[in-house]
From TrEMBL:
Organism: Sphingobacterium allocomposti
Name of the molecule in the record: GDP-mannose 4,6-dehydratase
Organism lineage string: Bacteria, Pseudomonadati, Bacteroidota, Sphingobacteriia, Sphingobacteriales
Cofactor(s) required for function per UniProt: NADP(+)
Role noted for this protein: Catalyzes the conversion of GDP-D-mannose to GDP-4-dehydro-6-deoxy-D-mannose.
Recorded catalytic activity of this chain's protein: GDP-alpha-D-mannose = GDP-4-dehydro-alpha-D-rhamnose + H2O
Ranges of residues in domain NAD(P)-binding: 5-349
Length: 371
């Protein structure tokens, strides 16, 4: 039985990865932060009473800012594989807490690598580092000749998050080369799911589309509608993480769909999924989306009603305009193929959010600060 340790197990990817590894027969350990209330909603269904005889999923309190605690957990669990998914992962929020993000997303990676080295586990433990397409920064001139970002494209991060993650990328590569460790970067492009955090743009859109259709929310306020992203499904992407650690040689891989779409396209697809066609009108901060037609009489959406407005509060000090990844290496070397396309992803998210909006009323447009 293999043993895996996941940092960030309470997050979107951590929860899907834990599911996948348990299905594959792993003993799975997860690190979670102490919070004043429970934050384990995404993994509660995996939890086994710790008094049972066969416990295959165990949680440990910890934090990526605390070396002593990481060393202790790694010593206790002796993992064959560590998946370092823990991070302050919101790009806009990273402008508000840049030092913290450097500590967790940058130095946190070093702490994991050093813990493995201090414990003499370099030849036993394989390490996956959650790197990101944010490293590329969306510079047009840095795309390859086919028009994509690949494993050889130069980096130019555009946020404190991206800069912290570039440290994580290089320190992982450096430890691989310096100490002959099996440590790999998965350079993952955006991936979403019904478990996506509510302040990332896709989930904000699907929750709001469902709430607006049910008359529970009036309007959705968004930032830059022109941003282009290569969106995949988190379920497909955690499969790629696992495959990266099963190869003979440790290497870095781009994981992406190779298709890009704008935030505006995502809005259009989300509303279309529930039979609402939109028309966009105006430019920049004056752009709005109105209802053009609605095929479901239950929704009582008037034709011409404004359902999306731009609020510049959501703009970022520096934006990543366009991301599109080249999955050629992951397809050929890992045999990885995503099962979901963009339409399938939107459908999965809309079905889930419509169901939960029918159960309860939440206001996804209200946050402590705009993100
Ligand atoms: P989430 O934000 O959903 O999850 C992040 C996880 O990290 C949560 O479990 C969170 O715990 C935990 N965490 C945050 N701070 C700390 C800390 N100081 N110590 C320990 N754990 C901490 O992110 P995703 O699941 O979407 O992403 C997983 C990883 O992949 C992240 O590193 C992200 O940066 C990276 N990534 C994500 C992409 C995406 O599109 N989703 C694309 C490319 C990279 P808590 O629940 O307590 O907040
Ligand atoms: P991103 O994801 O920054 O790509 O980082 P996010 O969904 O936050 O933004 C995508 C794009 O949408 C634009 N946008 C908005 N974004 C948010 N959050 N809220 C809005 O109201 C809004 N309106 C427009 C943004 O400006 C941006 O261009 C995600 C995270 O998961 C990172 O951790 C990961 O590394 C990258 O994806 C790959």
């Amino acid at each position: 039985m293999k043993t895996a340790l996941i940092t960030g197990v309470t997050g979107q990817d951590g929860s899907y990865l834990a599911e996948l590894l348990l299905e594959k027969g792993y003993m799975v350990h997860g690190i979670k932060r102490r919070a004043s209330s429970f934050n384990t909603q995404r993994i509660d269904h995996l939890y086994v009473d710790q008094h049972e005889q066969h416990v295959n999923f165990k949680l440990h309190y910890g934090d990526l800012t605390d070396s002593t605690n990481l060393i202790r957990i790694i010593q206790e669990t002796q993992p064959d594989e560590i998946y370092n998914l823990g991070a302050m992962s919101h790009v806009k929020v990273s402008f508000d807490s840049p030092e913290y993000v450097g500590n967790v997303d940058g130095l946190g990676t070093l702490r994991i690598l050093e813990a493995v080295r201090i414990l003499g586990l370099e030849q036993k433990t394989r390490i996956y580092q959650a790197s990101t397409s944010e490293l590329y920064g969306g510079l047009a001139e840095n795309k390859n000749e086919k028009g994509f970002y690949d494993e050889n494209s130069p980096f130019y991060p555009r946020s404190p998050y991206g800069v912290a993650k570039i440290y994580g990328f290089w320190i992982t590569k450096n430890y691989r080369e310096a100490y002959n460790m099996y440590a790999c970067n998965g350079i993952l492009f955006n991936h979403e799911s019904p478990r996506r955090g509510e302040t990332f743009v896709t989930r904000k859109i699907t929750m709001a589309a469902a709430a607006i259709a049910l008359g529970k929310q009036d309007c959705l306020y968004l930032g830059n509608l022109n941003a282009l992203r290569d969106w995949g499904h988190a379920k497909d992407y955690v499969e790629a993480m696992w495959r990266i650690l099963q190869q003979d040689e440790p290497e870095d891989y781009v994981i992406a769909t190779g298709v890009t779409a704008s935030v505006r396209d995502f809005v259009r697809l989300a509303f279309a999924e529930i039979g609402v066609a939109l028309v966009f009108d105006g430019e920049q901060e004056n752009e709005v989306a109105r209802v053009k037609s609605c095929s479901n009489p239950d929704y009582q959406l008037e034709i011409g009603k404004t359902v999306v407005k731009v609020d510049p509060t959501y703009y970022r000090p520096t934006e990543v305009d366009l991301l599109i990844g080249d999955p050629t290496k992951s397809k050929t070397k890992l045999g990885w193929e995503p099962k979901y396309n963009l339409q399938g992803l939107v459908k999965d998210m809309m079905e889930s959010d419509l169901k939960s909006q029918m159960k309860s009323f939440t206001r996804p447009d209200i946050h402590v600060t705009a993100v």
